[in-house]
Amino acid sequence: MKGFLKGRWLGIFIFLIISSLSFSSFSLAEGEKEKKELPPRLITIAPEYPGVIVDKGEEVSIDVIVKNGGQRDEDVFLYVTQIPQGWDAWIKTYSYAVSGVHVLSDKTKTLTFKAVPDKATGPGEYIFKIKAETGDKELSSEATIKIKVKEEKKGKRGKKVKITTSYPVLRGPTDARFEFSVEVENNTGKDMVFNLTAQGPSNWDINFKPAYEEKYISSLRVKDGRTESMAVEVKPYILAKPGRYPIKIKVSGEKAEDQAELIVILTGTYKLDVGTVNGLLSLNARQGKTANISFYVKNTGSARQDNIRFLSMKPENWKVEFKPERIDSLNPGEMKQVELFITPYEQALVGDYSVGVSIEGEKVTKDLEFRVSVRASTVWGWIGIGIIVCVVVGLVILFIRLGRR
Hints:
Elements: H1 2-35, E1 43-47, E2 51-54, E3 60-68, E4 74-82, E5 87-92, E6 100-103, E7 107-117, E8 124-134, E9 140-149, E10 161-164, E11 169-172, E12 178-186, E13 192-199, E14 205-210, E15 219-222, E16 227-235, E17 243-253, E18 256-266, E19 272-275, E20 282-286, E21 291-299, E22 305-313, E23 319-323, E24 326-330, E25 335-343, E26 351-360, E27 365-375, H2 378-404
Parallel strand pairs: 2-9, 11-18, 20-27
Antiparallel strand pairs: 1-3, 3-7, 4-6, 4-8, 5-7, 8-9, 10-12, 12-16, 13-15, 13-17, 14-16, 17-18, 19-21, 21-25, 22-24, 22-26, 23-25, 26-27
């Protein structure tokens, strides 16, 4: 009998090892399959606008997109390899110049190409070349940017007041607050107070602020020949749909005015709602037996959610599975149901356990915690009943024999 039980436990142990190895091999195979869809290494660099037309003396800022299309993360170094005479050019972030950027596999990074002309730089077409190269110099990519400086019309005088901004396009979620940095240059020949006005989409909140101050203004005093900075704060309408929205700002004074266009690109809001239909986050399970519960995932934001993944935090030797294993895409307002399968360890003690589930979407993560009550197997219940019956029968026989004596 002992040999039989020993052989039985050995067989169960071997079965568990084989099952674990098979599951691990399956997961690795799936991961490798996704990885093989990308080439081993690939980098590209591309300006958002490869050709622009500007006025004489105008600075140029263009977004440059660096993409890593390979399977491994890369350190990508950037160079401006051709700069025409009369210009200065470099690659920068929002605040400082950079010579390299780290890009994860299958991801992109956006930097800024900045070009500043000398005062003597005249009309014409100027060609700049930029180069991206990996740290080991095995891969490289090049791009060309053409800047055309327009000829001044005869009789046209320079602007008496001029608005400039380094970053006229900002991108973000609908519930974000956007702040543009704007400079106002006064060439009127005297100190002047300029009135500030803005025109944007309906129900949007647009305000002017002094640089580095938290108060709103409607006018700005600028000394002659000087430049003053200010901020344009934009708060989109909470129900605005994803898209591209222009905002026109205007400064006007005595016989002098100028206007500029700012762009806000809304990506939408990223929100998820998760839970169960009846609100319960508990279930009963038996040792070594699979129990399941379903929960829903709803996109309550205004942006589409792609590649929603599920992760679990479970007790040791437990098994947790999801069906489907992930949600490829979830449109705004769309809801999908997910089945959660939980298998307690065969030797788990009777009691309550916690199983955590993390739902990871784009820029948002939600967590659920399930309480699992593990109950003993019914086989042990019947064994207990059998033992009790045997004890009772033994006591009855004992009393009968003692009664006869």
